[in-house]
Specification:
GO terms for molecular function: long-chain fatty acid-CoA ligase activity. Keywords: Membrane, Phenylpropanoid metabolism, Transmembrane, Transmembrane helix. The protein has 23 helices and 28 strands. By secondary structure, it is an alpha/beta fold. It has an 8-stranded mixed β-sheet, with helices on both faces. α3 packs parallel to α11. The protein starts with 6 loop residues before the first helix and ends with a helix. The structure holds adenosine-5'-triphosphate (ATP). Adenosine-5'-triphosphate (ATP) binds next to β16, β22 and β23. Adenosine-5'-triphosphate binds next to β16, β22 and β23.
Length: about 725
Amino acid sequence: MMGKISESDYFSVFKDHGSYGIVGAIIVAILIPLLLSMIFMGKKKNKQRGVPVEDTGEAGLSMRNGRSAKLVDVPWEGATTMAALFEQSCKKNSRDQFLGTRKLIGRDFVTASDGRKFEKLHFGEYQWETYAQIFDRACDFASGLVKLGHDVGTRAAIFSETRAEWFIAFQGCFRQNITVVTIYSSLGEDALIHSLNETQVSTLICDSKQLKKLAAINSSLKTITNVIYFEDDETASDSNSSRSMDNWTVSSFTDVEKLGKKNPVHPRLPIKKDIAVIMYTSGSTGLPKGVMITHGNIVATAAAVQTVIPNLGSNDVYLAYLPLAHVFELAAESVMLCAGCAIGYGSALTLTDTSNKIKKGTKGDASVLKPTLMTAVPAILDRVRDGVLKKIEEKGGFGKKLFNIAYKRRLAAIEGSWLGAWGLETLLWDVLIFKKVRSVLGGKIRFMLCGGAPLSGDTQRFINICMGAPIGQGYGLTETFAGAAFTEWDDPSVGRVGPPLPCCHIKLVSWEEGGYTTSDKPMPRGEVVVGGFSVTAGYFNNDAKTNEVFKVDEKGMRWFYTGDIGRFHPDGCLEIIDRKKDIVKLQHGEYISLGKVEATLMSSNYVDNIMVHVDPFHNNCVALVVPSHQVLEKWAQEAGVKHKDFSELCDKVEAVSEVQQSLSKVAKAAKLDKFEIPAKIKLIPDPWTPESGLVTAALKLKREQLKAKFKDELQKLYE
Ligand SMILES: Nc1ncnc2c1ncn2[C@@H]1O[C@H](COP(=O)(O)OP(=O)(O)OP(=O)(O)O)[C@@H](O)[C@H]1O
């Protein structure tokens, strides 16, 4: 398609209109956009997005959203619980498409050169159900649960990958005021047993492929009586696993729905304060904690985020593929429900035409769905960026030059320069260059939500320019049901997380010991404390921890101490600059912020992942580095470093030295202190995945697990 419009075609538009035409065209194409951009950029720069507010509780600097003086708690009157929001939205949007799933057409296996087998899937079009149909299914499921003998005073757990039935089961439980425990499908056995026993779950709802895992731990699960599984085409061949679960009633999701349809039961609806969800955190700082989320928390975040996405409504199509057990995805889907959008389900491994599990020649989820909205965690956007850059690098020549020109021109414009690409020139670059990049995600993305971890400014800009859509960066925690701060769509800055959402206030409280205070210049700094309707009820079964980090002030406002360090910009926007738990002290008393150093070192081409480690009895840090397979192999080839396989290459002194030099270079460019540059590194050949338990589902490092797994390697680095 790119070849169809050439530069000469583009400029030939002016040929037939003589010199007046040219002058006119210049005014339309350059001067007017320039003028408008000056006016708007000026306005945007001066816009007060967050405003100071007087708050009670611990002393600090409080800020509220600039658009609403009163805290928002519901999306509209009456929608005070998730159950009410669901019912009312389903009525309002009854005929609109709601949940869509692709039909599986075929499944192949390909064998790689090393003998390993990889599954390749062929999916068809999306098949949709309307809001009214989904509402009926949730009601049927709720009735089925009761008929099945689930005691509504006990909890149900969902242990499954993201899919439409996850959402239906979730809503079904609320029709009977059943608290749902959410568990990552990648969770290991011990953590799974711990969370199911701790919350005394009696009904477990899962993927059929989890049945085997459950059968193996059957005797350790003390409270489960019912297991309901989502069918897929593998279920039939899995009959073995059902046999070993004699003490449980095992039913398929469809059977429970059918049972409920035949035997409708009156709903038993929750109130605002009831606990909707016990959600286990992803565990980046140790064992996951069960956060108790009320119905009021969910609707408050949904109501607030809804106001941030411009023109959100039933024309929007949202691509859902992140784990629903993560607060960020669950919050995003609640927002979509609120606004009457269509939600099409996919998965990270089938997202694009070239995704790992997509059969060659068939289409990925995004190409078929053509979403207008999607969410991403920063690690995914980093990969998209690396992928695009790699392709452009491979292409080389004129294509690469043109891309670089287009990128620089757009970058200049976004950063506010009059001389950047505006108006028709933007259109030209879109057609010539960016359209192709955008088509990878279906070509219609108009807003991207990103959150869950810090997003690098470079990546934010890159995605912003290449996708042609603003990125709304959300900041929040499971403890605030994702809702704390959110960047506004017309804010062109990077590296910040926006003003407080309208459902909460954000207060900075001085952390003297760490050297961050609200009287710091040029910007006030301190621990980020969130207060308001999105602040959850605390940790399940852990009053001590709850009382430590959740506080209620004299006016009844509930505050949560996040452990993150932030600073307020003059326009009221928050920037997260550190994490208390990531700051460690060296032997001579200097502090190192591990997360900050890692984020800097990640910008080396050689680094796929990195964990910086500090032994407090030493005066320097060391690092474990997962090198980029491709980049390191390419270097080895050029440098003539012989090796049998990647593992051997990672052990080569030359490779270690090459990566270390690259780290030093980026560290120096970013002006890191000497003690922040790893003195020694170890290259780790295997990637860190959520399945290996070394990173969370949002791809954040699990330091404790990594330290345990690489204990010997870390010790050697300090010898
Ligand atoms: N937009 C963002 N920018 C920077 N950091 C973010 C952003 N969003 C979330 N975070 C980080 O993620 C943390 C919240 O993550 P989450 O609630 O998933 O739990 P976790 O920290 O991964 O797990 P655990 O509490 O078990 O350690 C925040 O405290 C913050 O450090």
